Amino acid sequence: VQLVESGGGLVQPGGSLRLSCAASGFTFSSYDMSWYRQVPGKERELVAIITSGRGSTNYLVSVKGRFTISRDYAKKTVSLQMNSLKPEDTGVYYCNAKNWRVGVNYWGQGTQVTVSS
Q: What count of other Cβ atoms lies within 10 Å of the Cβ of residue 89?
């Protein structure tokens, strides 16, 4: 099983970044896919989730209207488009795959996002 994130980096406030996560080694279509972020000294928090099947989405309140999560079943990827970035969006962003029925949970290695002038 692999979840490989890419697309992180340094961006100025108000800028945009697009994170991608390439999945392999499991049945991608059966898993809810999420992005979490973590800053030092704080717990990892759920930023956005897109469910399997119907593809319903939900977002952390502070990113609603600025971030968009999407998934491509053919390419087995999940993306997070982040616009109007703020310094408080800084953190390590992790891709997560979860299958509630079988109780399985996979994590990527994380990608750093830094929003700073």
A: 22
SS3 string of 21-72? Answer: EEEECCCHHHCEEEEEEECCCCCCEEEEEECCCCCCEEECHHHCCCEEEEEE
Distance separating alpha carbons of residues 38 and 11, to the nearest angstrom: 17
For 30-62, write each residue's pLDDT tens digit: 999 999 999 989 999 999 999 998 899 999 999
Residue 1: both structure tokens together: 């099983």
Q: How far apart are CA 71 and CA 83, in angstroms?
A: 18
Burial class (CB in 10 A: 0-12, 13-18, 19+), 98: middle
Kindly give, in sequence order, each residue whose CB lies less than 8 Å from that of residue 32, ignoring residues fewer than 6 positions away: 49, 50, 51, 52, 97, 98, 99, 100
Give CA–CA dist 99/83, Å, rounded. 29
Q: Which residue matches tokens 């990608």? A: 111
At 99-116, the pLDDT tens digits run: 989 999 999 999 999 999
